[in-house]
Specification:
The complex is a heterodimer of chains A (about 120) and B (about 120). Chain A is mainly beta and about 120 residues long. Helices cover about 0% and strands about 55% of the residues of chain A. Chain A is globular. Chain A starts with a strand and ends with a strand. Chain B has strands spanning about 5, 10-15, 20-25, 30-40, 45-50, 55-60, 65-75, 75-80, 90-100, 105, 110-115. In chain B, strands 2, 4, 5, 6, 9, 10 and 11 form a 7-stranded mixed sheet that branches. Chain B has a 4-stranded antiparallel sheet with strand order 1-3-8-7, with no helix packed on it. Classes of the chains: A mainly beta (about 120), B mainly beta (about 120). At the A-B interface, strand 5, strand 6 and strand 11 of A face strand 5, strand 9 and strand 10 of B.
Chain lengths: ~120, ~120
């Protein structure tokens, strides 16, 4: 069965500094990978996704992620964090086939931004 | 594009009553929608997969008679929490699978409080 691990539960970063959120997955086939962001009391917003092709994918809000098959990782990065980036971030892998495309989520990483 | 709405955004009800939550894909059709439950400071837990025109598929441990799901059209799925108890209080989030992009888009969530 597939699984997703986000090793960092919390990350605190200063505004303007760079941010990297780690995501490792376990999946038998080529994965479909996603990063979502959730602000308090809100639903999830898609930041970016990787299906195939270029392993460096660009998303919204200045985020990017790099798929590294050899490391089973899909880390999310942003060069310069803004205070509005404070939120919960979820990495997910999709299980294709069966009853629709079910997502398996990591436990999430909460990002706090210091002024 | 790819907007999903949920209604209501928050609801308070008495124990023993039933509550219906609607999930709509506003600008695309979704043969598959998903219902999640999220406890404070935790990741999303998939409850069931809602398939248009057929019965929902429930995850292990989710009571199908308690959480009734109906997916009567390609843009609407409903979750009815029957005979609600205080332990059903939670944040419920739906998502809709956009078939052309194989991507799930999430609603803003519904905060249910059972008194």
């Amino acid at each position: 069965a597939q699984s997703v691990t986000q090793p960092d539960i919390h990350i605190t970063v200063s505004e303007g500094a760079s941010l990297e959120l780690r995501c490792n997955y376990s999946y038998g086939a080529t994965p479909y990978l996603f990063w979502y962001v959730q602000s308090p009391g809100q639903g999830l917003q898609l930041l970016l996704k990787y299906f195939s092709g270029d392993t460096l994918v660009q998303g919204i809000k200045g985020f990017e992620a790099e798929f590294k098959r050899s490391q089973s990782s899909f880390n999310l990065r942003k060069p310069s964090v803004h205070w509005s980036d404070a939120a919960e971030y979820f990495c997910a892998v999709v299980h294709r086939g069966g009853a629709g495309n079910k997502l398996t989520f990591g436990g999430g990483t909460r990002v706090l931004v210091k002024p | 594009g790819a907007v999903v709405s949920q209604h209501p955004s928050r609801v308070i009800c008495k124990s023993g009553t039933s509550v219906k939550i609607e999930c709509r894909s506003l600008d695309f059709q979704a043969t598959t929608m998903f219902w999640y439950r999220q406890f404070p400071k935790q990741s999303l837990m998939l409850m069931a997969t809602s398939n248009e025109g057929s019965k929902a598929t429930y995850e292990q441990g989710v009571e199908k008679d308690k959480f009734l799901i109906n997916h009567a059209s390609l843009t609407l799925s409903t979750l009815t929490v029957t005979s609600a108890h205080p332990e059903d209080s939670s944040f419920y989030i739906c998502s809709a699978n956009e078939g052309l992009t194989d991507t799930q888009y999430f609603g803003p969530g519904t905060r249910l409080t059972v008194l």
